Amino acid sequence: MKPIAQRILLAFVVAAVPALAAHPARAQDVSAAPYKQVVSANPFGLLLDFFNAEYERVATETSTVGTGGSTFKRDSTRYVNADVFWRFYPSGNPLDGWAFGAKVGLTSITDEGTYFGYGFDVNRSWLLGSKKNFYVGAGLGLKRLAGGPEEGGLDYIPTIRLVNVGIAF
Known about the structure:
Structural class: mainly beta
Number of strands: 8
Order of helices and strands: HEEEEEEEE
Strand order of the largest sheet: 1-2-3-4-5-6-7-8
């Protein structure tokens, strides 16, 4: 990664951490959700040289905030992606069910550069097991790269969570 890209990524992480670490005030306590956060990853993607991981935290009775990262290699090009996101759960059951979200973040493409991007996604997640704390999630979306690569480069990239598994706590 180029030095400027490393500095942009560091600034992005420093800006995202306080937002994700914030706790709701007592009056905003979200007691309907049995768990308040999830850590998940896609172990199956390692077989395909594709990996992603996420941290998601309940923010309100119907939404979550989180951060995620992924990497994918195709031929000699590696894509590295880091996003912060917000997801809306229309069922009122954060971390379990359908979710529609928005995301912003950085995407680094080997030999092309690092770009800011924004987009959306549609996800489905399940809390399974006797304690309902085994998490399974899948989703897809689209991300627009602002100032993307010129001359035939990508302006949009798909975002995919094949099958993330994790733990709710």
